[in-house]
Amino acid sequence: MLSVLRLHLPSDIPIVGCELTPYVILKRTDKSVITEDVNEFNPLDGQFLKYRWYRVQSDKKVAVCSVHPSEQATLQCIGCVKAKIPVSKSYHCSSKCFSDAWQHHRLLHERAASAVNENGNEEEEVFARINGQGNTGTGVVNTSLSASQSSSSLGNSTTLYPAAIQSSDGETMFEVGRSKTYTPTADDIGHVLKFECVVVDAETKSAVAHSSTIMTSRVIPAPSPSPRRLIPVSGIDVPGHFDVDGRISSVGTFTVLSYNILSEVYATIESYSYCPPWALSWAYRRQNLLREIVGYRADIVCLQEVQSDHFEEFFAPELDKHGYQALFKRKTAEVYNGDVNSIDGCATFFRRDKFSHVKKYEVEFNKAAQSLTDAVVPSAQKNTALNRLVKDNVALIVVLEAKFSNLGVDNPGKRQLVCVANTHVNMHQDLKDVKLWQVHTLLKGLEKIAASADIPMLVCGDFNSVPGSAPHSLLAMGKVDPLHPDLALDPLGILRPYPKLTHQLPLVSAYSSFARVATGLGLEQRRRMDPATNEPMFTNCTRDFIGTRDYIFYSADSLTLDFGASLELDADNRSLQRKNFKNGCSECRRAKKVISNATACPDLLHLAPNSPDAQVFKQFGSSPSAGDLGTSSSSKLSVFGRATLGSVAGVLQWLVLSVFVMSN
């Protein structure tokens, strides 16, 4: 006989539009445990599980805070009501809660501007009221909402199934679902959900045991992405022609997106204690990640920290709908729980209408470590060497053939190939020798590919190395100074002799190229770049680290950097450090509205292939709270970095956007 051993939800706070998938553990008569879905169409031992979802409505129901869903609302933003923003987003539990969220409200009001600006001093009164400088209630309503008031403002429930179950304590349960998963709707906002499963006999269809249930917290509305603010970049007009959406296009250009999306197994409350747990849930994050990735409309997409199950079940099928072909390389060891599905890796996607797949190479640094130790490490030190070098990192190398061409009649039939390397280098800062060895190993492999076919290179990824570090120097300069301080850490002697730490690939950082040639940059753009390295001030921003780790390098002899966009923030690096993490979760309240939406997202112009040195002009825009992200042109190279959790985790990560042109 089957019995339910445990029920668990990844997050107990449901979000409208985000699928809930309970984790159900079953025990069989022989004491074995299973986690597979045993439904009516897949019975086990003559039994299956019947599922029910209920919305629990109470006569005592009150409006809940849009920021802290466990708290009752006491304030309401009238600006949101007048602007016809969903009323559930207007509630707050305290003046401080409202004050912390005011900048987000203001952006929503501006986006909806019609009603908010009808009263000239309305916003000032709202702000004054919160700060205790006003005596009127204009703009903010103190409330103790009754059941009837909250029901009318939040919307009355619409049942999916006719039956309602009345309980003795004034609660009514409406059945809303009959499958294992359930996606909350707007009707569920402010209500608790109840999940019930019971073991049923496959023949009689009758229950053979008591039902097992689990209750959620109140359902909250999905946070709205904030509108991004545009910062103009001045310059001169450029040659080219405009697409129908107003962007310049030219033949032979393409776009690339590189993005560390943060694996679910690493998105733990221990690592991101300043984030609300629901914002760390994969069901919520994946929606934002997909919206952001699709919004960029890049021709090539390089993702890091993609779990195997997420690739197979989510990214590959979802991006296939948008015209992408997918390739994946999983890391070489199981993490933490021994579940092969939770192993992350590198995934590369490309538009089928722009490229065709020619060849795939997989780099397993573990195998390279084994070969290295067999060749140069004494037998007595092999185990020590392997323990240090074997870190399971991988690289995925893909050779693509372009279906477009900028070649003239002098080169009819010549294939346009490009080699795209996607990697995630070891993160541990006490293993600088391992980082450098991994990067050197990858570059030597790319050298062989380049020599065999004269293919332009793109090297993308999260290198976990700051500008000026030995790995960065090797990539950007083609060599490492023998006196570089990173070389002092070489316990295995694998980096010696130091002169061997070179490569012949003409690689250039997209960021540094952009900073050097984009003479039309204004102050707002310049201050996003480090003048010493010409790299961004940061691509990774957490409570514990702010700096640059993510890059795209390109072959400068065969690809032309056509255009780039700056790192757009609403605060400079110093103020970001002051603001975002000093209050822990208080800043998270604003940021959580746009989890995974922190990557720079400008509207782009790019140049014609024959005029790479011309300046460009356009408005670029984004901010740490930027939503509605996306670029619409399919003829530019967009370079983004590791935006792990977006701003909800305090991980505001930005890279530049660049346009490359294939040379003849």
Automatic annotation (TrEMBL):
<keyword id="KW-0269">Exonuclease</keyword>
<dbReference type="GO" id="GO:0004535">
    <property type="term" value="F:poly(A)-specific ribonuclease activity"/>
</dbReference>
<keyword id="KW-0963">Cytoplasm</keyword>
<keyword id="KW-0378">Hydrolase</keyword>
<keyword id="KW-0539">Nucleus</keyword>
<comment type="subunit">
    <text>Component of the CCR4-NOT complex, at least composed of CRR4 and CAF1 proteins.</text>
</comment>
<keyword id="KW-0479">Metal-binding</keyword>
<keyword id="KW-0804">Transcription</keyword>
<dbReference type="GO" id="GO:0005634">
    <property type="term" value="C:nucleus"/>
</dbReference>
<protein>
    <recommendedName>
        <fullName>poly(A)-specific ribonuclease</fullName>
        <ecNumber>3.1.13.4</ecNumber>
    </recommendedName>
</protein>
<dbReference type="InterPro" id="IPR050410">
    <property type="entry name" value="CCR4/nocturin_mRNA_transcr"/>
</dbReference>
<keyword id="KW-0694">RNA-binding</keyword>
<keyword id="KW-0540">Nuclease</keyword>
<keyword id="KW-0805">Transcription regulation</keyword>
<comment type="similarity">
    <text>Belongs to the CCR4/nocturin family.</text>
</comment>
<keyword id="KW-0677">Repeat</keyword>
<feature type="domain" description="Endonuclease/exonuclease/phosphatase">
    <location>
        <begin position="257"/>
        <end position="565"/>
    </location>
</feature>
<dbReference type="GO" id="GO:0003723">
    <property type="term" value="F:RNA binding"/>
</dbReference>
<comment type="function">
    <text>Acts as a catalytic component of the CCR4-NOT core complex, which in the nucleus seems to be a general transcription factor, and in the cytoplasm the major mRNA deadenylase involved in mRNA turnover.</text>
</comment>
<dbReference type="InterPro" id="IPR005135">
    <property type="entry name" value="Endo/exonuclease/phosphatase"/>
</dbReference>
<dbReference type="InterPro" id="IPR036691">
    <property type="entry name" value="Endo/exonu/phosph_ase_sf"/>
</dbReference>
<dbReference type="GO" id="GO:0046872">
    <property type="term" value="F:metal ion binding"/>
</dbReference>
<keyword id="KW-0460">Magnesium</keyword>
<dbReference type="GO" id="GO:0005737">
    <property type="term" value="C:cytoplasm"/>
</dbReference>
<dbReference type="Pfam" id="PF03372">
    <property type="entry name" value="Exo_endo_phos"/>
</dbReference>
